[in-house]
Structures are given as C-alpha cells and as structure tokens.
Design brief:
About 20% of the residues lie in helices and about 40% in strands. Strands 1-2-4-5-6-3 form a six-stranded antiparallel β-sheet, covered by helices on one side. Strand 1 and strand 2 (about 30-35) form a beta hairpin. It is of the alpha+beta class. It has helices spanning about 5-10, 55-75, and strands at about 20-25, 30-35, 85-95, 105-115, 120-125, 130-140. The radius of gyration is 15 Å and the shape is globular. It has two helices and six strands, in the order H-E-E-H-E-E-E-E. The longest helix is centred in the middle third of the chain and has 19 residues, at about 55-75.
Length: about 140
C-alpha cells in the first residue's frame, strides 16, 4: 500500500488537484489500483452542478492519469525516478455512471505499451464494482526536473 505522503512525493500535484488518496495494489511494470474518496467538500461540487453534485468526467480521467503516473514512476529504475511523466493523450473515453459525493473511486490501470519514453495504459474507474468511466491513456517520460 502507498499512503498519501509518498504519493505527494511522486506526483507534482497538490490540493485541490491531487486526485489519488491511496494505492492499494501495485505490480510495477504491470498494473495498479488506486483509491479516490469523493467527498462533498471537493471544490468543484458547488458549481458542478448546484443541487445535483457530479464529479466532472475530466477529473475522473485526471485521477486515472495520476494513478498511471505513479505506476510509471514505480516501474522505472531508481535513477530515472526523478523524471516527470507527462500526459499525452486519450482514446476511447467513455463515461458510464455519474460519480457523486460519498462514492469511492477505484482506479484500475494496466500498462498496455512501454517503448522507450512512451507509455500506454488501459484504465477504469469503478464505483461499487460498476464501471463509472474507462479510457486508454498515453504518457511520456520527460526530462529530469
């Protein structure tokens, strides 16, 4: 398990844009499962939508991308772990179920491609075992910070 402090040391994101609370499973070079606890206190809920709070789909995908970044980071040799991972693109994004306050997003990603600096991932975001969103993500390993 990877707790929030270690996540914060790997990702360049901070509140309110850090969208991964915990990593519950990881197989470096293969797959990862992260958790995002969705609370009513999220800064986007008052405007999305008043009276019917729904987590924006782009933020669900961002949570998947951040989780994929952790997997890439943990899959690299230690000498490359200071390099940032940049999000390059998305394919086949589908939103299946709204995500609302009180939900726990389970972010499941697996590596589908890794050649040189380019990484491909297949991701799913689930709530109560049901797919809320899915996407194919593409990322690139950048130069050291």
């Amino acid at each position: 398990m990877i707790e929030i402090r270690e996540i914060m040391s790997m990702l360049p994101h901070a509140y309110p844009f850090l969208l991964v609370d915990r990593i519950v499973e990881i197989e470096p070079g293969k797959r990862i499962v992260g958790i995002k606890n969705v609370t009513y206190n999220e800064p986007f809920f008052p405007g999305h939508f008043p009276g019917r709070p729904i987590m924006p789909g782009v933020l669900i995908v961002e949570a998947m991308a951040q989780t994929a970044g952790i997997l890439a980071f943990k899959s690299l040799p230690e000498e490359h772990q200071k390099k940032p991972v940049f999000f390059l693109g998305l394919d086949n994004v589908r939103f299946r179920k709204p995500v609302t306050p009180g939900d726990q997003l389970r972010l499941e990603l697996e590596i589908t491609r890794h050649r040189q600096a380019i990484w491909g991932f297949q991701g799913k975001a689930l709530v109560d075992g049901k797919v809320a969103a899915e996407a194919e993500l593409l990322a690139m390993l950048g130069e050291e910070k």
